[in-house]
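User: I'm putting together notes for a lab meeting next week and I want to include a structural view of one of the chains we've been expressing. I don't have a solved structure, so I'd like a prediction I can at least talk through. The sequence is below, exactly as it appears in our construct file.
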Amino acid sequence: MTLYTLLRSLAATLPALLLSACVSVVSIESSESTKGEAAGAAKTSGAGMPAAPAYPSTYQPLPGGTFLIRNATLLIGNGERMDGGDLLVRDGLIAAVGRGLEAPEEAEVIDAAGRWVTPGIIDVHSHLGVYPSPGVQPHADGNEMTDPVTADVWAEHSIWPQDPQFTRALAGGVTTLQILPGSANLVGGRGVVVKNIPNRTMQAMKFPDAPHALKMACGENPKRVYGKGKKKAPMTRMGNVAGYRKAWIKAVEYRRKWQEYERKRAAGDSRAKRPKRDLEMETLVAALEGRVKVHMHCYRADEMAVIIDLSREFGYQVAAFHHAVEAYKIADLLAENGICAAMWADWWGFKIEAYDTVRENVAMVDKAGGCAIVHSDSPVGIQHLPQEAAKVMTASTRKGYRVDRAHAMRWLTLNPARALGIDDRTGTLEAGKMADVVLWDGDPFSVYTHVERVWIDGALAWDRADPRYRPQTDFELGLGPVEEARP
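Assistant: Thanks for the context. Below is the predicted structure for the 487-residue chain, given as structure tokens.
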């Protein structure tokens, strides 16, 4: 019997959380909160959307304690650095940051002299769980390639929580990630933000109250998937744009119908006919109204500029362009419009639209006052995102623009949190925020540095020195003996 099977049999009697001593870290979903959400599901809030979210988060923080990290090099995440700094965590939150903090009586004290502390790393572009390992066809659940517009699908309904790649990312200091559908379609569906805690269900991993994403794509991918051989639109870039416009026009009309219905009901017209719900349109309307954030796969500068014009035509906001290898060409335009660019350090040239990049891309967007992000889009890259950022720092220094470590940390924590709409709760080491914290044995931007410990909401989630806190998924059970805890 696996741990997950055991927990299912105990869930009815155990009130809150369980922590495996040797194998997995698991939280029990809150049935009361789920009942509360279901009770309100009959109500609507604009365009037929349920007032209570469907598939609500049941995430519960793991049990944690009070601890004080002393004498560390703190990279706050907002551009500040504190040498010889202290960090106090209590009740799952950062309680204080400073020097010479007094340890509460119940606190564990960790001497971090010579070591570094950062916020948990946040990856805004991941396909973990929807393209899990092993990478076999039955696991390929990230692209619904049946129509150019599939706004009705949600990535979270493809997530396999047992994907071993989650724990590898955790070992790289990643505490939060956005899991997106792929880029085959003009509109690929909803993405979801998760806390990187192994669990039984996707709902128990969902970041509470984080906005959904709307994954969209421009350029080669949609026109290649549908145009070549299939003779189905889109076949060209102008076909791409026409496809977006048609979808947004439908969404505007769908919203108008619901607004008219609600107006009539408010005026006491009991004969008003309720419009039929449409899952695609619900998502698009939510994006128009800013309740779902638009994240768009786009490489070329000219296409990003067209999408900005498109967003003005229909009145929505692009949260971030992803990959964006030519973002440096329109860095000022991105900054003016408050759009983040989530970029690789040095991936380029693997197709024509990815040909014209520079290694300083991230830094040039940053220098123009924009929201620059280093992302992975890779189960390998997600394991060493600070080292990816270091590539950009090195390239920029050679060109005369030096980016220090404290500033570059923004690319990995605060800016991604901003793009996801969760920067009020995570992304920096500031009092009152979630205690998503990483302890490194040296400079996190060095290839020689390891993650020592990771805390999520103040609970120890990963420990390099203690196998009890190196979680395995059920899928990995039986592949080898679990190490004994070190003395």
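A couple of points you could mention at the meeting. The first strand starts at residue 17 and ends at 19. Residues 386 and 444 are 6 Å apart (CA to CA).

User: Perfect, that's what I needed.
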